[in-house]
Design goal:
Strand content: 5-15%
Helix content: 25-40%
Number of helices: 11
Order of helices and strands: HHEHEHEEHEEEEEHHHEEHHEH
CATH topology of the largest domain: Aspartate Aminotransferase, domain 2
CATH class of the largest domain: Alpha Beta
Radius of gyration: 20 Å
Distance between the termini: 23 Å
Number of domains: 2
CATH architecture of the largest domain: 3-Layer(aba) Sandwich
Number of strands: 12
Largest sheet: 4 strands, mixed
CATH superfamily of the largest domain: Type I PLP-dependent aspartate aminotransferase-like (Major domain)
Length: 367
């Protein structure tokens, strides 16, 4: 059994993937070729936003957004300690200081009730993360941020395809970003990502940053990076975008079945994932909490069922961020989730038989 079944998806759409790859081979424009612009236009239409910018990775997308805002030494950027390191890494790489805010007990996303207390005169941006497939409470976050005059960068690497109050994740902040890493619900076969905004000036600047700060040939008004998207990855993501909505529905059905089966069995030692009433989720991962996480992992492994504990060491306890001065106990919700989280196999192609084996194994291990 695979933790993320990419092979079944590939078998389904391989002829279309090969057709699109052959087009790239034929025209030979391997970087920022026509497929990149085609993908950008499709994403703009999907999100109903003015600008989608294809970039080399989700990490580059985050960094380029912060660079467009001019964030650097002496600045602070608020985010969460329960996320992949990229979210805070890009802040530190630009010379700014990551400031962490604890997560909610139910959705495991940034807790808006703790946000205002973290804002200082040095705060130059806020980065909420749509963990495991659903957005943060962007309505509350945006209200606080706008009152304080602080821009919001929505990290939708895991939540692209979900909604908050009916609006798509990716355009819920001033800038949004996503990742096309292969394991994401909408992923390529390598690194890639995208940036979304309705701000013309920011979009133009980020396009410069994408090509080493170049506005036109031999003219570089700003510092930039090599953040360009490969045509091959854009072609592959387009092939997957054609079936993306159907796959999201398939993921939703699998997640609902997991939760229904485990809840019906009365497994009181596990906490099931919750989707906020205002949200939908793309179920980038199906993650539950177990007080005996290691025991559950071992039990699943014995039956050939893979499981993963993401972010088991939260960012505020990572050695690289030790100079920030955080200590164990500073973010209790984050630490509880990090200590207990375990993700079950999730993709659109987990079969009914596999779902049954997985839920039975969880039930047997946690009764």
């Amino acid at each position: 059994m695979q933790f993320i079944d990419l092979a079944s998806q590939q078998a389904r759409i391989r002829p279309e993937i090969e057709r699109r790859i052959l087009q790239v081979l034929d025209h030979g424009q391997y970087i920022l070729g026509p497929e990149v612009r085609e993908l950008e236009e499709k994403l703009q239409d999907r999100l109903n936003c003015k600008h989608a910018i294809g970039v080399a990775s989700g990490t580059d997308a985050l960094m380029m957004a912060l660079m467009a805002w001019g964030i650097g030494s002496g600045d602070e950027v608020i985010t969460v300690p329960y996320t992949w390191i990229s979210t805070a890494e890009v802040v530190a790489l630009l010379g700014a200081t990551p400031v962490f805010v604890d997560i909610q007990e139910d959705t495991w996303n940034l807790d808006p009730t703790k946000l205002e207390a973290a804002i200082t005169e040095k705060t130059k941006a806020i980065i909420p993360v749509g963990i495991y497939g659903q957005p943060a409470d962007m309505t509350a976050i945006m209200e606080i941020a706008q009152n304080a005059g602080i821009p919001v960068l929505e990290d939708a690497a895991q939540s692209f395809g979900s909604t908050h109050h009916g609006r798509p994740s990716g355009i819920l902040g001033d800038i949004g970003t996503t990742s096309f890493f292969p394991s994401k619900p909408l992923g390529g076969y390598g690194d890639g990502g995208a940036i979304f905004t309705n701000d013309d000036e920011l979009a133009e600047k980020m396009r410069w940053i994408r090509v080493h700060g170049q506005e036109k040939k031999h003219y570089h008004p700003v510092l930039g990076i090599n953040g360009r998207l490969d045509s091959m990855q854009a072609a592959i993501v387009q092939a997957k975008l054609d079936i993306f909505d159907e796959e999201v529905r398939m993921r939703q059905s699998i997640a609902e079945n997991y939760s229904a089966q485990i809840a019906a069995a009365g497994c009181h030692t596990v906490t099931l994932p919750q989707v906020a009433e205002a949200n939908t989720s793309v179920w980038a991962q199906y993650t539950l909490l177990s007080a005996d996480r290691d025991g559950l992992h071992a039990s699943l492994s014995e039956q050939g069922i893979p499981s993963v504990s993401y972010y088991a060491v939260p960012l505020h306890l990572q050695p690289v961020f030790s100079k920030l001065g955080y200590r164990e106990g500073d973010f209790p919700a984050t630490e509880r989730v990090a200590d207990q989280c375990i993700s079950l196999p999730m993709s659109a192609y987990v079969t009914e038989g596999e779902q049954g084996l997985i839920t039975e194994a969880v039930i047997d291990a946690t009764r």
